[in-house]
From TrEMBL:
It comes from Pseudomonas syringae pv. daphniphylli. Belongs to the class-I pyridoxal-phosphate-dependent aminotransferase family. Its EC number is 2.6.1.-. This is Aminotransferase. Pfam families: Aminotran_1_2 (PF00155). Transmembrane segments: none annotated.
């Protein structure tokens, strides 16, 4: 729509799958206008802390660039609290939604925080994309902020934490390489190099033979994604335990 072209920046476990000032310096060119990051991130579950966000903000400001942060998984963190980029940069753009922490995925309701001088242009963009958010969805979202509703969300977050704490060591024990432990969202990004083959074939094998679904890394990027898969711990603990048993069985038949 705005005739821009995204430049993908390779990141790996050594960067905790996140952009940093050194990578900005290495990849910035005369056509660059800003950077988009997600914290916490899908598919890795990693996040940028306050100091890292501040350093990234300064690296972009030094180049007259804009920082856009997708904070859609804020609220879904385990053992840490995710900092908002607005704590260190009031000129940053923030994307968020009721879909994840608030569990309103199907309602398609979110928001954008932006500098005042660009709001009018963003309103024009919004009017051409979707006109406005449905009134029914907006009224439903108000219930999210009731104390009894927030209590439910926090119970749900604690349950996600228990699932993560089960699935992470279970997959590692089976031989999956999980170099960086997720601190947020509800995903595990795993290296399957130890088993051989490519991620698409690997995922298809388990879907067809064991009826366990997880996602090839190429759905999320290109850098070494062909031998990575993403697991989502959005099912109950008993279902995850059953899935691990099936994965263990499927590994015995993989490549046979």
């Amino acid at each position: 729509m705005i005739e821009g072209e995204a430049q993908l920046v390779p990141v790996g476990p050594q960067e905790r799958y996140q952009l940093n000032p050194e990578l900005v310096a290495a990849h910035w060119n005369q056509n660059s206008v800003g950077a988009l990051v997600a914290s916490p991130a899908n598919p890795t579950g990693t996040l940028l802390n306050r100091d890292e966000l501040a350093a990234l903000s300064q690296a972009l400001k030094a180049r007259n660039g804009h920082l856009v942060v997708d904070e859609i998984y804020h609220g879904l963190t385990y053992g840490v609290e995710a900092s908002s980029v607005l704590e260190v940069d009031n000129e940053a753009f923030v994307l968020n939604s009721f879909s994840k922490y608030f569990g309103m995925t199907g309602w398609r309701l979110g928001w954008l925080v932006a500098p005042q001088d660009v709001v009018a242009d963003l309103e024009k963009l919004a009017q051409n994309l979707y006109i406005s958010a449905p009134s029914m969805a907006q009224h439903a979202a108000l219930a999210c902020f009731e104390p009894q509703t927030l209590e439910i969300f926090e119970q749900r977050r604690a349950e996600f934490g228990r699932r993560r704490d089960f699935l992470l060591p279970a997959l590692r024990e089976l031989g999956f390489g999980i170099a960086v432990e997720p601190e947020g969202a509800f995903y595990l990004y795993a290296d399957i190099s130890a088993f051989g083959g490519d991620a698409f074939a690997f995922c298809r094998h388990f879907l067809e033979t064991e009826h366990v679904a997880f996602t090839p890394g190429l759905d999320f990027g290109r850098h070494q994604a062909g031998h990575h898969v993403r697991f989502a711990y959005t099912q109950s603990l008993p279902r995850l335990q059953q899935a691990v048993e099936r994965i263990a069985r499927g590994l015995r038949s993989w490549g046979a």
